[in-house]
Write a structure and sequence with these properties.
Blueprint: E1 3-6, H1 11-16, E2 26-29, E3 32-35, E4 44-48, H2 66-79, E5 83-86, H3 96-104, E6 108-112, H4 129-142, E7 148-155, H5 165-183, E8 190-194, H6 201-207, E9 219-223, H7 239-246, E10 253-258, H8 270-274, E11 285-288, E12 301-302, E13 311-312, H9 314-324, H10 365-373, E14 377-379, H11 386-402, E15 410-411, E16 416-417, H12 425-439, E17 452-454, H13 504-516, H14 518-525
Parallel strand pairs: 4-5, 4-11, 5-6, 6-7, 7-8, 8-9, 9-10, 10-11
Antiparallel strand pairs: 1-2, 2-3, 12-13, 14-17, 15-16
Helix pairs in contact: 2-3, 4-5, 11-12, 11-14, 12-14
Amino acid sequence: MKFATLASASLGALCASSVVAAIDPLTIKGSKWFNSKTGEQFYFKGVAYQPRTGLKSNNPDPLADTVGCKRDVAVFKDLGINSIRVYDVDYTNSHDECMKLLEDAGIYVLLDMPSPQYSINRAEPHWDHDTMSHWQAKVDAFAKYPNLVAWIAGNEVANDVETTPSAAFVKAAIRDMKAYLKTKDLTTPVGYADNDDPKIRMNLINFFNCGDEGSRADFYGINTYRWCGDKTDFKTSGYEDITKNMTSYTIPSLLTEYGCNLVRPRTFSEVKSLYGTDMGSTFSGGIMYEYTEEDNEYGIVKVSFGDSKVEKNSDYDNFKKALAGVKPQGVKMDSYKASGKDSVCPASSSVWHVKSDVLPPTPSQARCQCMIDSLGCTFKNDKLSTAEGKLVGEVVGNICGATSCDEISVDTAKGVYGDFSACSSLQRSAWAVNKNYENQRSAVCEAGDVGTKIVSSPKQDDVKKCLSEKDDNGVVGKPSGSGSGSKDDDSSDDSGSDEDSDTSSGTATVTARLSVAVAAVLLLAF
């Protein structure tokens, strides 16, 4: 039975501080959230919060805009929400004032771990030291805030059949970030938000809740825009089907985005079902998309960065009225008995290009640097320009087309991850260039027009020794892709959706795409 108190500060920080939090900690027990002090079931009544209008840089950080926070927290209180979801922040900024304002207002924050430059690319997924260290730094920056209630490790990353390989990398990221949080004595849950695609949703739902607890998501979010206008209802919108899919789920689920805007003004009639008898016993509430009116026209207010002015529209009043009209009747934590069993991992198939019981390895800066130190032929410079990166991508593509690049390649459908597949694009490129050098019996050290150099006496005389280096969470040993573990690896998806059970064509396709596409990954990364 999963029963964990969600603390946002480490034990050391808590012991060192005499400040009493103004907000109660939440607890996950089974598939529900609870207020750990009152024992009442907790439902998220939230909005997506990422103001973009008036932004004067490429760094959108609403939690560092103190003028905006003071402006919006007052509006949040009037609106009657208890939570916000924030997609992007700059962890180097100070967030003390905004987070305190939110805490004092009783508002919890769900924060996405990725940022545009440090995220898992759905088309050519990869999980390496640079991305992981950026996420770790964000965790460190927000660990002290008692109202930081949850992390989201991916938002709609796998959004169709062809991008399902990316799910393996997101789950590896969840595994590694949960392990990192544990080293910091943090128990903040880490979850995932999907895009409600009918062809892959049940595979995603099952995948993120199967295997060992260390790699499973702590909660699951669904972004859905099916309920459009008052002519739609619980059944015709498809919300009934969504609810049935999650009824026996063993971790909490919530709508991490909702609020179709095809019919405006929006009346938010789905709120009654979400917090009422239709869905209240299954879902833990939701996050309405979104607070501010932007180019996509989903907002309920107009604001601008650094400006205290707020202009509400009719959607604001409708949403406020909808929230005020619901009082979800949950269960008491003491009387609630968690039930159900963990999901069965989906089998690799033509619509699911992942061997679910094997995940990509944990990144290791030490292992990758050791590999670089073993090379007799490498690049002259530690960084490449965009133009050089494109040239290298072509060179590596040619090399890996003529010889095996298994050590830096991946095949998610077969669950095969090369020993150095979690290294950076530059490091994997150097490995390939050196492989070509060795195949030519040390005759030519080159990478097209990109500068290279011969290292006559490498620091490391045996690259195999690198495999015993610690990973970025301090674990020693050979890189392993384990961590998902299914009791029934040959099981087929049980979604009931219209899926092709033939596994051969999908596996062959993704094998070719991912093994040959190493060069494309490298090219994209520079």
